[in-house]
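Reviewer 2 asked us to include a model.

Predict the structure of this chain.
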Amino acid sequence: MGKEIEFKYLVKELPFNMENYKSSDIEQVYLDIPNADKDKTYRLRKMDNKLFYCEKGNGLVSRDEFEIEITKEKYNSLIQFAENNVIRKTRYFIPLGYDNLVAELDIYYDKLEGLKTVEVEFKEDYDLSSFVPPSWFGKDVTSEPKFKNANLAKIETISSLY
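Predicted model (structure tokens):
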């Protein structure tokens, strides 16, 4: 199991020339698997033409993460555990220009229309105190559980976030 270390922000303003960046359409479904460890989050993800299964531990900045690509058959066998909470978004991959860092800008749809967040993932040995967010980043919401995708999937409208 690997370690995910990331900061998450709201977006103050979109960077210009969005069409110049690689992007992916994402659909995430959260699972309620009987007798599974309740301290973990279980997720299915469709990203472009690939399917993934993911388990994440507790934590806000740093947490355990296990993710693998799966077959359509495996996806279909797990979807029965879906909580009926789906997130749809487009993710843009924006190089930050230093330390090989990439901003993952998510623009949400459906019930989360209007929400834009950006995450930056770090290697374990990265000095987190040295990270300076670009000016287009907004409020740091890393420590606010309501902005974790598993919790975003459960809300009815984004007005409940503010």
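Residues 2-161 form a domain with the Hypothetical Protein Pfu-838710-001 fold (CATH 2.40.320.10). Helices lie at 72-78, 149-152. We have added this to the supplementary material.
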